[in-house]
Give the backbone structure.
Amino acid sequence: MENEARAPGALAFGALLRHHRLAAGLSQEALAERARLSVDGVSALERGHRRTPQRETLALLSNALALGDEQRRAFVDAAARSRPQGGATGTAGASGSSHLPLSITSFVGRKRELDEIAALVREHRLVTLTGEGGIGKTRTALQVASAYSGMDGARFVGLAPLGDPGLVLAAIASSLAVREVPGRPLLDRLIERLRNASLLLVLDNCEHVAAQAARTAEELLAACPRLRVLATSREPLRVAGEQTYRLPSLSTPQASRSHQLRASEAAEYGAIELFVDRARAVEHRFALTDENAPLVAGLCRRLDGIPLAIELAAARANLLSLKALDEMLDDRFRLLSGGERTALPRQQTMRSAIDWSYDLLPSTEQRVFERLSAFAGGCTLATAIAVCASPDDAPVDMLDVLSSLLDKSLLTADLEGSEPRYRLLESFRQYAREKLVARSEAETIARRHALACLDLAERLERAYDPRTDDASRTGSTQTWPGDIEPELENARAAIDWALGAGEVAIATRLACAYTRTWRMNRGDAQPRRWLEAALERIDAAAEPSVAAQAWGTLSTISFGTQKVDAARRALELFEHCDEPYAKVGCLYQLSAGLLHAGRVAEAQEATETALQISKERGLRGTRRYAGALGMRGSIAARFGRVDDARQFYTQALSLMTALGDTLEATVLRHNMAELEFSAGNPERALEYAEAAALAANRVRVKRLEITARANAAAYQLTLGNVDGARSAAAQALALARGAHSMDAAIATQHLAAVAALRGESRRGARLRGYVDAWYRSEGCERDLTERRTYDILVTALRERLKEDEIEAFAAEGATLSEEQAALEALTV
């Protein structure tokens, strides 16, 4: 709200405001509360003692009164008529910001961006806001312009309707009420008007007339020293002195945090704030709650935080539930339509917004844009060349094309990794995919993409995993997760395509290649589904090596008897293939499974066979041999031969370190911690575990960090530090939850012991029942560490509950799902 003097025409606006308030059955106090305004402000507006509200206040009032489209337009018109009509003063007209278009919806979020853009406008005379369609460039520019402090304010020039670049100059002149005079160039008239003006000129939507807009801006800025230009465009104007600002998507919570987001935490995310604001505009009863906040967060993430997409989705909140909205995003261009009738056509649907950009591309860039839709997880320059450059097409400089698409805001780039990654936002990717299908290229590109994914994974595997004892071929695995992690979503898409297309061998090899990295940070469930689907379809007799590889990989993500069965199936198939390296790996998994199942003598036999094959086939300098030495150490530890175990672990650790295998070296340190714990040195074990947790965190391998923190919790329990145990186990469970079931069960058991020791006996007994049921279902036995904490748990329960009570509560716990058990454990 602005000045306190009765303004001509304000009474008409005030009367309309009062009419709508009374029709809604609201007092001034109730309206003020709903609109988040002061009661005095509402009263002054109704009595005509203040000018019309700024457009933000007008939007708040419109939303609070739940006005329909026609009512909102009438409301805005009444506000505009109440605005002072003072004549032109100075060179550019008084109150320049009053010439900016009004918006009937509120501006949400972007405080940091507004501050940064305003600073650029103060420091530079030409600033261009870039960004993809629907990102909010126009609204943001208007918000900056409305706060511009120049003496002559700001003027807005909308270039979107122009079909002819030659009309740019005329559009600017019209906004400034500059008329052509016979015999005088219009540019000279404009310069004459603006020469001494302290004005911010907003040139909106320049992309389709970029060359002419750039020339005009350059000429005006050269002749008018106090003039500033704020342009919006899907690509830079490329004028000397131009400062570009790429407007980002509205903030959304990370996927890992979304599922447990509370309503009170959601307000910090601009995308969620916008969704709630626009949903309330069509359904005033809509409220963000702890129950629906994760759904809203997921919606906003899937919409890439693009304001237009969020507004279009929220506009359906009066017709569809949040769950239905989320499901309909698979057909998002049908959902994301029906914008404001008064908006430009390309702002009424998400498809139209992207059409606008796509139609401006040359044909070569259109083809690459379409083919980039194959990359669900983005791509590097090398993979873009492999998939998007066809020998049948004219030669393409892929770097130039990607740079152009980036400049035109159709592509985003992440420059933080070892090499740049390029990605289409999801709405753009689905649009490009539709174009690819229409061109009948989808299957060809999908196959090319799958083969590129496979080639990348196998090249990295060869680089980091030499299969002979030739020391010259060693390579560090420390960067392996960082190299392959960004490709996991591409792998998912490629495997899904291959399974659907009947390309079983490709699907199987892809699943095997990506399982190791997927399970490190995302759990075993997805790779298990892939491998089981592939094994149902593959002809083992025709392709024994591929089938053996699949069974062997499945053994790496199984436990107990299931691990044993998978490893044995793989070994049977490898009997028909001369692949000693793979065979040694399967023997390692067989040994681990037998050890988990308590069949220690059989595990020892399998390990000795692996070591013998390694010696005979020249594998003594490899990771497989080091792994078998480590397994020999674990077996010695199970037999209580501590000195032998230390010796084997040390040998394995020395070889892994020489090979640069940071990951397996960390695993061995875990085992050494367990050894010291079994030998009665819990303090030393805790030192190993905490060091391993830090190392795993440094190389971003969540699985190893979970194990280290869970073990640290067990050691703390043995040392009597219940608070330390609770902290370490809760960290492990939070990381393992929903992805790593065995680790989650172990951490839950430690928290059950904490609960029993702290007097929460019923909860401890329920959690014990869940963990017991998990071990039974997986055919596993507890390792020494888990047996020790289990004994602590059982003893504490028996001190506080009767045996029949313990069994009753345990029976309840046996029915819990993993998520239910995790939620209960984390409340200990």
In short: The radius of gyration is 33 Å. The beta strands are 126-130, 154-158, 200-204, 228-232, 243-246, 412-414, 421-423. Residues 1-11, 84-97, 339-348 have pLDDT under 50 and may be disordered.
